[in-house]
Specification:
It contains twelve helices and eleven strands. With 329 residues, it is α/β, with parallel strands linked by helices. The protein has two domains: 188 residues, inorganic pyrophosphatase (n-terminal core); 127 residues, Diaminopimelate Epimerase, Chain A, domain 1 (Roll). Helix 2 packs antiparallel against helix 5. The structure holds adenosine monophosphate (AMP) and manganese (II) ion (2 copies).
């Protein structure tokens, strides 16, 4: 059965977004969920972790649950490169019993599931969902459009990432024409920094290090506690320091409450961080990837920086071919 037929026949699909959800995970979950609801289906919208406060403006966010209901007929995974990223919603027995549709744009997707719709060139999973809705001739209501556009905006950092295409911009226009309020969405996304995060940025940035083309920043549990913020709030830091002129790679280490360390990676075109993330048990895209490793932080720092330095040395010929610099660090 084709993926399209499977989705057309689904009455009670279980839609799942990845843990530590971002705007694309929640945006694609709700965007597809709204379309299905408008067709009279009964989707369960699920994510093992709570919706971040910054996304609690999205229509339908309060219907997202952290456990399944139990009578689903199809599973749809959104924006998740592997089953671990589904957290507690991954249930081996259930996943063996039901068709599993894997919709994603990570180059490191391990192709789990019985049906795959994986497009590594798509800027976001919400872009893939939008194309799917059009192919199925399903409605794109203002609510659905709002959620999908939020996914597009957040994964492209407002259409600034190097993978942003004319097609992504055309999709944004179509979603705005379908009723997505661009200014309102940007207002919610941009005017949302807790004061404690500014303090945290200041303290973390003042200790940023640059060595051999790699800029790194660390956020310890102690710093999070002192600033009164959570690890998720620190995630924007890596994109900030990725703009450092002398750096080809930016890395952010964040200590989680359980002592594990989240590693966020960014790179310039010509340097691919997805391979290092995958080798360390994570995943992502060429220019933005991540993984989570057991602590302590010092050991994680040494391991990750060693992997990155080795990869960066091997990438120098490609960087030179692209006109990048490897000598002004
Ligand atoms: P972040 O730095 O958290 O914004 O993540 C950048 C990219 O890496 C995103 O596309 C994530 O999906 C991916 N990523 C981050 N952490 C992990 C992880 N632990 N496992 C797999 N992929 C990850
Ligand atoms: Mn995501
Ligand atoms: Mn995404």
């Amino acid at each position: 059965m084709s993926l399209e037929t499977l989705l057309r026949q689904a009455q009670r699909p279980l839609l799942i977004a990845h843990i530590a959800p971002d705007g694309d995970a929640i945006g694609s979950l709700l965007g597809l969920g709204w379309a299905m609801k408008e067709l009279g289906r009964w989707p369960t919208l699920a994510c093992a972790d709570p919706v971040p406060e910054s996304l609690q403006f999205l229509p339908g966010h309060d219907e997202i649950v952290s456990r399944r209901k139990g009578d689903e007929d199809v599973i749809v995974s959104l924006d998740s490169s592997d089953l671990l990223r589904l957290g507690s919603l991954y249930d081996q027995e259930l996943f063996a019993a039901l068709p599993v549709v894997n919709i994603d744009h990570h180059v490191t997707n391990v192709r789990f599931g019985s049906e795959q719709l994986i497009e590594p060139t798509a800027v976001s999973t919400s872009q893939i969902v939008y194309d799917l809705l059009r192919r199925l001739d399903w409605p794109v209501s203002p609510w659905s459009a709002t959620c999908l556009l939020t996914g597009l905006i957040t994964d492209t950092r407002s259409f600034r990432t190097s993978n942003t295409t004319a097609e992504a911009l055309r999709t944004a226009v179509a979603l705005i024409e379908a009723g997505a309020p661009l200014a309102e969405i940007n207002g919610h996304l941009e005017h949302d920094i807790p004061m404690g995060v500014v303090t945290l940025w200041g303290r973390a940035l003042s200790a940023a290090r640059l060595q051999d083309g790699i800029v790194s920043v660390e956020v310890t549990r102690k710093l999070l506690r002192e600033c009164g913020v959570s690890g998720g709030d620190a995630s924007g830091l890596v994109s900030l320091v990725a703009g450092v002129r002398q750096a080809q790679i930016a890395v952010l280490f964040t200590e989680k409450p359980d002592g594990r360390v989240e590693v966020g990676l960014r790179s310039v075109p010509g340097v691919d961080v997805s391979g290092v993330a995958l080798a360390l048990g994570g995943g992502g895209h060429r220019q933005a990837a991540g993984c989570t490793l057991p602590g302590p932080l010092e050991a994680v720092r040494d391991t990750v920086l060693a992997h990155l330095a080795q990869m960066l040395a091997a990438a120098q010929p490609e960087l030179r071919a692209l006109g990048g610099s490897d000598s002004d660090a």
